[in-house]
Structures are given as structure tokens and as C-alpha cells.
Amino acid sequence: MNKINTIKILFCEYCNWKKFLKDEDEKENLKCFSCGRLLRINKALDPQKKVEENKEVEKRKKQQEAWQEEILKFKENFKGNKNE
After folding, report:
1. Cα 79 from chain centroid?
2. Measured on CA atoms in the order 60, 62, 65, 69, is the torsion positive or negative?
3. What does the domain layout of the chain look like in residue ranges?
4. How would DSSP label each residue in 20-62?
5. What pLDDT, on a 0 to 100 scale, did the predictor assign at position 1?
6. Where does residue 16 fall: left (phi above 0), alpha (psi -120 to 50 degrees), or beta otherwise?
């Protein structure tokens, strides 16, 4: 499976200010641009990646259901031909 994409988020717990970072923007000590307090860097999963994975799972489920129906029809036809 593909590597999970993450987004780094700067979040100020005091004033709830947020900023999304790319990997190259990461620094060690950053201050909130709103209140001036020291910030923590948190990682969050990429929400678009999750949506794409859910669509892929649904697509696979539909393919499996179609395959099962096809197998059942084949079995019914095979039994019908065998009895003749």
C-alpha cells in the first residue's frame, strides 16, 4: 500500500491559531503569529487521501459483488446444461 501522506500543523492551544506546513517549512522553535506563544508541531493525516482510499474500497466491493453474481449465473447455467 502507498505511504500515508501527512500534513504538519502548527497549532496554538492558547488562541487556537493554526497553520499548515509543508515538509520543507519545518523549523524547531516557532511562535504563534497571533499571540506570540511557543507552538507545537503536530502531524495530521491527509483528509483527501482518506477519501480516495474509501472510493477505492467501494470500487473493489462493487467488483467483488459483480464477480460473485457472475459465478452464481455460471453455476446455474452449468447445472442446467448438465441436466439436459
Report:
1. 44
2. negative
3. 1-45, 47-84
4. EE-GGG--SS-B-TTT--B-EEEEEE-HHHHHHHHHHHHHHHH
5. 43
6. left
Please tell me the predicted confidence (pLDDT) of residue 67: 95
The amino acid present at 16, given as its one-letter code, is: N
List the single range of 31-35, 36-40, 62-66 with lowest mean pLDDT.
36-40
The values of phi and psi at residue 15, to 5°, are: -110, 5
Q: Output the nine-digit C-alpha cell for 8.
A: 504538519
| 71 vs 11, more confident | 71
Q: What is the dihedral of CA 66, 67, 71, 77, to 10 degrees?
A: 50
Residue 31, phi then psi, degrees to nearest 5: -110, 150
| CA dist 20 → 6, 32, 41 (Å) | 11, 13, 10
- The position carrying cell 502548527 is 10
